Amino acid sequence: MLGFGYAGKVYPVNPRESEILGFKTYPRVGDIPEPIDFASITVPAPAVPDIVEECLAKGIKAVQVLTAGFREISEEGEKLEEQLTGIAAKGIRIIGPNCFGVYSPVGGLTILPGENFPKESGPVACISQSGGIAARIPRRASGWGIRFSKVISYGNACDINECDLVEYLYHDPETKVITGYLEGVKDGPRFFKLLQEVSKTKPVILWKGGLTQGGARAVYSHTGSLGGEEAVWDALFQQSGAIRVNSLEELIDTTLAFLYLPPYRGRKVSVVGGGGAISVAAADACERMGLSVPLFPTELQQKLASIVPPVGSGTRNPVDVGGPMPPPAMLKAVMETVLTDGDVDTIIVDEIEMSMSGHGMKRFGRDHGELAQVPVDVKKRFGKPVVMVMPVEAIGADAIEFEGARRNVCDYYLGEGIPVFLTLERAARALSNLVGYYEHRDAISSPG
Amino acid sequence: MLGFGYAGKVYPVNPRESEILGFKTYPRVGDIPEPIDFASITVPAPAVPDIVEECLAKGIKAVQVLTAGFREISEEGEKLEEQLTGIAAKGIRIIGPNCFGVYSPVGGLTILPGENFPKESGPVACISQSGGIAARIPRRASGWGIRFSKVISYGNACDINECDLVEYLYHDPETKVITGYLEGVKDGPRFFKLLQEVSKTKPVILWKGGLTQGGARAVYSHTGSLGGEEAVWDALFQQSGAIRVNSLEELIDTTLAFLYLPPYRGRKVSVVGGGGAISVAAADACERMGLSVPLFPTELQQKLASIVPPVGSGTRNPVDVGGPMPPPAMLKAVMETVLTDGDVDTIIVDEIEMSMSGHGMKRFGRDHGELAQVPVDVKKRFGKPVVMVMPVEAIGADAIEFEGARRNVCDYYLGEGIPVFLTLERAARALSNLVGYYEHRDAISSPG
Lengths: 448, 448
Known about the structure:
2 copies of one chain form a homodimer. The termini of chain A are far apart. Helix content of chain A is 40%, strand content 14%. In chain A, helix 5 (188-198) links the parallel strand 9 (177-182) and strand 10. Chain A is built from 14 helices and 16 strands. Residues 358-366 of chain A have low confidence and may be disordered. Chains A and B meet through helix 3, helix 6, helix 9 and helix 13 of A and helix 3, helix 6, helix 9 and helix 13 of B.
């Protein structure tokens, strides 16, 4: 907390020390002379219930219990956890146990391993039954420029559970997109109704772990939750409007789509790439993810044919500009022609080697070549969704400079409000998740 | 060719120059005074047939035609291509047209954009109808330490086709694993029989592009091939023993599994990771890919419980060592106990932060910490398949140093014969492809 920069008062409580990190330390919670807003509890599990009782007596409204060793490990632990639930009912709210707590840049709080989390706030909230995921999502997402309003690692959910948190975030003006990693749900019907309601105005992107046999077993070891049946969860996602994702990567990709793309519905995309097989793979990936890559009308094909090279190219959609480093004017003319004459909702620029482009550019620096600027200019002019796919081509340790250059160009696009994905498949999946959400919203709000 | 270091004699042919790059240049092929082994043809499409005729007259046995503008663009092009097929029948073999040609480190040849390809040869062959893919596979794969015997970009396949190439590689002693990117097949029944035969001794890993409507259309623009029906290709893969992959990533991952893992059959894996949700996700991913993560017997769970932390851990399989940076001795004891007492075929070390490990290690250097060495030591002692999963956690341009450190540790494992994958999902898919291949081999060789 101190490392993160918490600006409020801190009162360490410990029966054996009189000073910790320069702070006067109190033997018991009740000894603190001033009123307290929030307590973070890390004593061993058997001592937790008494401490929470003391917090209640002190008038503290909420605590987080980071300690593990409750329901997830033994029957004794389960009994201890039931005690906590009982104490909570008397008038104190508990997050945890077996969690990493709360990250809130505005409040100056951070989760247990979150000392170096971003200080700036953002529009994305995350609730996670897993502490590890609550730590990894903001770390990875911050590389994509994503910032968070609140991240809550809530562990075994002895009191405050996923429903309470989603409800809170639904009303939180700072939060525009709600994400979550769940292992189990305490009250299925309430959760379902809540998701139906929240999804009308805020997207809820959920990763449900433990839907296989081995996964369910691991869930039980982890947070003492029951994994649930896949069919039940399928129905929940289909009917509630919540967005289902199946991995950390998909959760972040989908969040990126919601942050960087406007609310829109259409599934028709044009892919502009530099290579025949890239076009084939792109069309396959889009159509497998439920997007369509419509055949362009002959007239539009002819216009495009006058721009791209006469051989080694393609104009039917996907558009193949012939190679991964086309002249900037060619890429620009292709994109403009597609957006002017093509009946598409999104344009995906696929695997054009932006970081290598422009022989005059400072090769590994932050000076982006003329080619790299084309999608930015086109997006500004047309206002239509532009999506970039920029795979990591240079894998080896000896190619780290190339990877640095690629990342600089990614940052440039993100800074210009253009989402970047690592593969076409991942871009298509995220787009499909985005569009599916708005389609569902339309469907439930239409009178029939 | 010269940049790559071709050591044989080179005879440029050009009617307008007398010298090119310091080489005496001949107006026509027939003017070259010595016998010629191989010709690479890059003249415009309408001139190609006459040139190939001249090569035939000169006694050249084989040519590659890099020129595009044949079957894939027009009926005229199709007629030109049929002329080439006719000339080939008279006694000269043609690779292409519309291709990047042949990369053969032993022969000193490389494909059109392959000047900087590795000079060393290796056990993997690749055939690709796409020039772009023929260029990308060796580039990306080389970052994983994969080296190639031959890469053949064969484009429209007017003469030499996928069957000829697979048959050749089947008999090529340098080639142990055959990979390929296909858009269409000239002779389906022959190809099917050939794959059945080859798969008995060499794995054939194939990515078939163009199985969706949009993909098929792109295939036709690209190499003038007919994409084929998905059901037909499903059957071909199921019955021939060839290994189906659906992306460049999966092709390389699967190749990595074949190169770095022994031939084996079992689908039982133990996952050892540092975090509860990581274990849940790992179990879900393994079981979705057809692997099993068996529940450990009570006795083994108890042994593991005496090694891992008492809380915040898991012993049922997956094994959760409690955090992403366990003490080296703990990871070692867990791995050894699992391999001694656990009835598993593979152990996957999942998302342990090896590159951050060992506070004494040179942080971004090549001096690997004690923790990073554990999987190497254990693999040496037990000889069982060990697989590493090391995701890219640090995405941003400002975190490129961390990524460099991660790649150094990856290289260390690859150097020690341990495969590394970027996600558990990708590792599980590659493992499943590997094991499925050997299962098929067993099934067809068993008398029933």
